[in-house]
Amino acid sequence: xxxxxxxxxxxxxxxxxxxxxxxxxxxxxxxxxxxxxxxxxxxxxxxxxxxxxxxxxxxxxxxxxxxxxxxxxxxxxxxxxxxxxxxxxxxxxxxxxxxxxxxxxxxxxxxxxxxxxxxxxxxxxxxxxxxxxxxxxxxxxxxxxxxxxxxxxxxxxxxxxxxxxxxxxxxxxxxxxxxxxxxxxxxxxxxxxxxxxxxxxxxxxxxx
Length: 208
Fold this sequence. Notes:
Elements: E1 2-8, E2 13-19, E3 25-29, H1 35-45, E4 48-53, H2 59-62, H3 65-72, E5 76-79, H4 89-95, E6 108-110, E7 115-118, E8 121-127, E9 136-140, E10 145-149, E11 152-153, E12 156-157, H5 167-178, E13 186-189, E14 195-196, H6 197-203
Parallel strand pairs: 3-4, 4-5, 5-6, 10-13
Antiparallel strand pairs: 1-2, 2-3, 7-8, 8-9, 9-10, 11-12, 13-14
């Protein structure tokens, strides 16, 4: 399968372009900014985007939603608990001295356990509240890959000092929803380098 990372925006968000080589169908996860670069990657891979997915509603992960939905016509997915954040993108980004564009409302709502298909591949939604109340991870079971949003990082976890955040809830989500996955599963966070479930079980200092 196609699994490309495009690092976008001032906060270095990992945007993912996933694709099925057999059918040419693809999805984009967390188009936070620099949509022209994301679209260039999509074009280079020859993909037709069938879904745009936000792991959560923070401005740095959703800032390109409007431009990308307009360019592709693909439906936008986010968890219901984070949907209200989409209309506050410009205000929130401005608090950090950054430009931002409010997002359209979602076409479809992520739910725990739902499957999103693109070609022969399938993403399973895992609801992991804590960083935000609607935070979700996306599991590619057949490929042994997890897109973790801002839930779990390499030797770190998502911040919980923003509205809707809860450290206790985040740790519970990681331990009960993510650490039940096989150790060899590769974890692709919303920022920073890749890690694995096994490494984080053994070494993450925030989960003792």
